[in-house]
Amino acid sequence: MIGKRMPRKKNGGITIETIVLSGYYGFDNGGDEAILYSIITELRRLKPGLKIIVLSNNPVKTEFTYGVQAANRWHLPSVVSVIREASLFISGGGSLLQDVTGTKSIIYYLGVVGIAQAMGVPTFFYSQGIGPINGLMGKKLIPLVANRVDRITVRDSKSARLLESLGVTKPEVVITADPVLGIDPGEVNLSRGEKLVGSLGAGARGRIGLTLRDWPGMEELLPSLAKWCNDCAAQGWQIVILPLHLPGDKVLGERLLNIMAQERNFSQEKCVILEGGYLTEEYLGIIGSLDFLISMRLHGLIMAAVMGVPMAGISYDPKVDAFLSQVNQPVTSTVDENLEIGRMLVMLTMALEDRNKLKHNLAEKVPELRLRAREAARLALDCIKKA
Questions:
Q1: What are the angstrom distances between the C-alpha of 226 and each of 214, 230, 253, 387?
Q2: In the β-sheet with 271-273, what is the strand arrangement from edge to edge?
Q3: What is d(CA 218, CA 212) in angstroms, rounded to the nearest whole number?
Q4: Residue 299, CB half-sphere, CA atoms under 13 Å: how many?
Q5: Residue where a domain stops, chosen among 142, 175, 208
Q6: DSSP for residue 245
Q7: Does residue 17 fall inside a structural domain?
Q8: pLDDT one-digit tens code per residue, 326-366
Q9: What is the β-pairing status of strands 331-334 and 69-72?
Q10: Cα–Cα distance for residue pair 287/307, rounded to 1 Å
Q11: What is the tens place of the pLDDT at every residue in 38-76?
Q12: Where are the alpha helices (DSSP H) in 133-213?
């Protein structure tokens, strides 16, 4: 028996509303930390007096970084304890419900939602990206839990269609946008990013950023990508390698840099590899200092969109293609067994040359997505009012 939910605590006669957030938090993944930053920022903007508790892999760091309370996501008694005092349990955002990396993700994230439901705590899916779902377990568990969620929001229409195909019939699924798109670029301190990147150098044309992730096919891609980067550097571009998820992205970036160094035209002063592990505001400042971004990481692309930086995606997952389609930016290729490296490099060059047009596309598409991203927080808080 899990136990009933505790009554809401009061402070001087005022009810303290508590929200528990569940997601891939505390794992040094810049994208998921940007999601957490965005959700907390928007909830506090709408309701400053909220008490927020995050289920985290690193509770101490999460508390220090965001000024919230945090609980160890792996310690069941702690998870049950914080959910018991919650006014609302939020699951998301990000790609929590997928089985590409195995079934453990689905079991965990639906499991904690199920605990909240068993305690009578309202539950909310916050702008989630659903899928891919290939296994029978996910196909059975998702409708079992999701059909009892109080409100569901997803970040794209493909996720909504997948939930429908799995038999999720209630509540109504609302399409919003990724939470990070709700960030106001005017509130980002660009100088922090500039300091981390360093000076551009006299005569440089600008900065090209790279956010990569290890994936089958990268061994074949890296030598050609290294040559392309060296050619750009020879034309006056500064190459900035930006790890978003430590330690893997940093290791991959160093491999790329080592291959570049073997080329005759390599210029060390025109290539920067950053440490990673930054705060969301710092990542946004770094990306905002770029003139163009090439990214495999979805939230590298999303942060570029927030900052109005034109981009090209190297896809490894349908979620990358879906987002780039939303903001009218190019997918150069997919890293898989059918990878056409030559075609990909040609498309990268074309995208770099068309960056002014791509920047214009962002200016047209992102404002609407920003409004949709912020709508999720309002819908979440409405669940507390109805509880």
A1: 15, 6, 10, 55
A2: 271-273, 237-241, 206-211, 292-295, 311-315, 331-334
A3: 9
A4: 25
A5: 175
A6: B
A7: yes
A8: 999 998 877 776 778 888 899 999 999 999 999 999 999 99
A9: unpaired
A10: 7
A11: 999 999 999 998 999 999 999 999 999 999 999 999 999
A12: 136-146, 157-165, 190-197
Ordered alpha helix ranges (H), 28-70: 30-46, 59-66
**Do residues 110 and 138 touch, judged by C-beta distance below 8 A?**
no
In terms of residue numbers, what domain contains 85? 10-175
Q: Which tokens sit at 37?
A: 């930053």
Tokens at 188, concatenated: 């980002």
Pairing of strands 331-334, 123-128: unpaired
Residue 272 maps to a domain: yes
CA distance 122 to 380: 10
Q: Is the backbone peptide bond immediately before 48 cis, with ω within 30 degrees of 0? A: no
| pLDDT given for residue 266 in this prediction | 83
- Look at residue 1 in the predicted model and tell me its pLDDT: 41
152 and 223 together in one domain: no
- What's the pLDDT tens digit per position in 156-204? 999 999 999 999 998 889 999 999 999 999 988 888 888 898 877 666 8
Rounded to a whole number of angstroms, the distance between the first and last alpha carbons of the chain is 22
- DSSP 3-state percent helix, strand, coil across the chain (nearest 5): 50, 20, 35
Length of the chain: 387
Sole residue written with tokens 């030598």 = 223
User: Does residue 330 have a cis peptide bond before it, meaning omega lies within 30 degrees of 0?
Assistant: no
- Residues 166 and 152: beta-carbon distance below 8 Å: no
130 and 211 fall within a common domain: no
pLDDT higher for 92 or 333?
A: 92
Domain end residue (candidates: 125, 147, 175): 175
Sequence letter at residue 378: R
> 149: closest CA among 117, 106, 107?
117
Q: Is residue 385 part of a domain?
A: no
> Do residue 332 and residue 241 come from a single domain?
yes
133 or 1: which leads in pLDDT: 133
Total count of domains within the chain: 2
User: Encoding tokens for residue 103?
Assistant: 């079934």
For residues 31 and 155, membership in a common domain is answered with yes
